Amino acid sequence: MTKKRIAILSNNGHSPWLKRLARLLGDLGEIEILTECAWDTAPVSVLDLIVVDTSGLQMELAERVAWLHGRFPESPIVVLTSSPTWRRARAVLQAGAADYMRRSLEDQLLLKRCRLLMEWQP
């Protein structure tokens, strides 16, 4: 069985929350954390899941999601935010995100959702 590849987009590399997220998602596959600058120059490869940490993004969120969706059309994108709004949710879902969730301590809910998205075949 091939190990799943999960990429996290975050500009907050020293955040304790990000480190916790990486450990949590590490149970599902191989984790790679990239900043926005790194994504812009990274080679296109197969990813089983993309997780976007909304804090500290330089590009407007819906624009970044649309860019990611265009570059990785087969990869589900999960957007995690500390302050969700319905307008933002609508914008990122229309831009190509598979889910928009509150950044929380509900580890099992996030794991379950990510697992389902990685197993889903269009």
Structure description:
The structure is a single chain. This protein is of the alpha/beta class. Helices cover 41% and strands 20% of the residues. It contains five helices and five strands; from the N terminus they run βαβαβαβαβα. It has helices at 16-25, 36-41, 61-71, 86-95, 107-119, and strands at 5-9, 30-34, 49-53, 77-81, 99-102.
Compact overview of the structure:
The protein is an alpha/beta fold and 122 residues long. It has helices at residues 16-25, 36-41, 61-71, 86-95, 107-119, and strands at residues 5-9, 30-34, 49-53, 77-81, 99-102. It starts with a strand and ends with a helix.
Features:
globular; alpha/beta; 122 residues; 20% strand; single chain; five-stranded parallel β-sheet
